[in-house]
Amino acid sequence: xxxxxxxxxxxxxxxxxxxxxxxxxxxxxxxxxxxxxxxxxxxxxxxxxxxxxxxxxxxxxxxxxxxxxxxxxxxxxxxxxxxxxxxxxxxxxxxxxxxxxxxxxxxxxxxxxxxxxxxxxxxxxxxxxxxxxxxxxxxxxxxxxxxxxxxxxxxxxxxxxxxxxxxxxxxx
Length: 172
Description:
172 residues; mainly alpha; 3-stranded antiparallel β-sheet; 4 helices; 58% helix; globular; disordered N terminus
């Protein structure tokens, strides 16, 4: 008897992708924690550095100075999002772009939740900077980010693309 893509192989494929993202994210963070002191920088190019930053907040350090309660808020949001994403993946595993987006978001979210649970902060390490960013960010440095943040960003882009394509198909 053939398995439905929503129940067996399809769901497992998307969970596997989320796990791969999680593992890559955690390996990079372990390496940064092992080899860098907080604030230490390695210049890679004239626009890209590796740096060790501890982010106690969310994106762009939102609520970083809130006193500690935000850690548990973000852990809770990540846990609820993960359960909801697994539900959506079960229901829509055959929709490739949608499931790819959800897997990226889930892998990244779990990576940052694990940091908050184990360390109390998220480890960020990619420092992108350029002078044309100076009007928006101090010294032209975009806020440091990590593999999990990148996966979440790509996941959101894929979700937007999936919705755009769905609406386009419906119209025409």
